[in-house]
Specification:
The protein is mainly alpha-helical. The chain has two domains: 46 residues; 143 residues, AhpD-like, CATH 1.20.1290.10. Helix content is 64%, strand content 0%. Helix 5 packs across helix 11 and helix 8 runs antiparallel to helix 9. The longest helix has 24 residues. The radius of gyration is 18 Å and the shape is globular. It starts with 14 loop residues before the first helix and ends with a helix. InterPro entries: AhpD-like, CMD-like. Pfam families: CMD. One of its GO terms (molecular function) is peroxiredoxin activity. This is Carboxymuconolactone decarboxylase-like domain-containing protein.
Length: 208
């Protein structure tokens, strides 16, 4: 971490800051505050807004959890956010993403500059729905401007995301781009320069 972590408990004498600590702790419970929290808590108002926004994405959305985690993992791969991958790849597996599909998320070359799905993406273990999510995440992350064809695929009969799901997927990809950039810039968790955990190890761990 490029900064010292903030205290794990609220400093005395400030009720507003104490309330922010309590809200973040309530979302993390029964786990303790994580390194990302202790980075952001140098600015309690920022940490509070962050907790509310990401908390809504994680706990108040209707989009399939596996789909959301697959998108988060793709963002982690594209941005080199080791902390983000290591935290969310196990959640993707628990959400129903297969090991083969998760490996494709990690290994398929970025598709952002391709005007159509690449042969590597099409021949991967990813379903049509997962391929559409990967293309959307790639273009949002690397190009920002999403092609009409890529967006239309999300609403196609084969993929079938509702309007609400499209908004939630978009907010999730955008939100975790924000997360990854904070993680990498500040080296939260001291992960810069480390390897992402292998899918094989994660699958084996899940099967124990």
């Amino acid at each position: 971490m490029r900064l010292p972590y903030a205290p794990a408990t609220a400093p005395p004498g400030n009720a507003t800051t104490a309330a922010i600590y309590s809200r973040i702790a309530a979302r993390r419970a029964p786990r303790p505050l994580i390194p990302l929290d202790l980075s952001l808590l140098h600015s309690p108002p920022v940490a509070d807004g962050w907790n509310s926004f990401l908390g809504a994405i994680r706990t108040q959305t209707v989009i399939d959890a596996g789909v959301l985690e697959l998108a988060v993992c793709r963002v982690a791969v594209l941005t080199g956010a080791v902390y983000e991958w290591n935290a969310h790849a196990p959640l993707a597996l628990r959400g129903g993403v297969t090991g083969a599909a998760l490996q494709a998320v990690r290994s398929v070359a970025a598709t952002a500059e391709a005007e159509a799905p690449t042969p590597e993406l099409v021949s991967s273990a990813l379903s049509a729905r997962e391929q559409a999510v990967v293309r959307y995440a790639d273009e949002m992350t690397l190009r920002v401007r999403v092609r009409d064809e890529t967006f239309a695929a999300l609403r196609s009969e084969a993929v079938g995301f509702s309007e609400r799901e499209v908004v939630e997927l978009t907010a999730g990809i955008a939100g975790y781009n924000c997360v990854s950039r904070v993680l990498v810039a500040l080296d939260v968790g001291e992960n810069n320069g480390r390897e992402m955990r292998s899918v094989e190890d994660l699958v084996q761990e899940l099967q124990k």
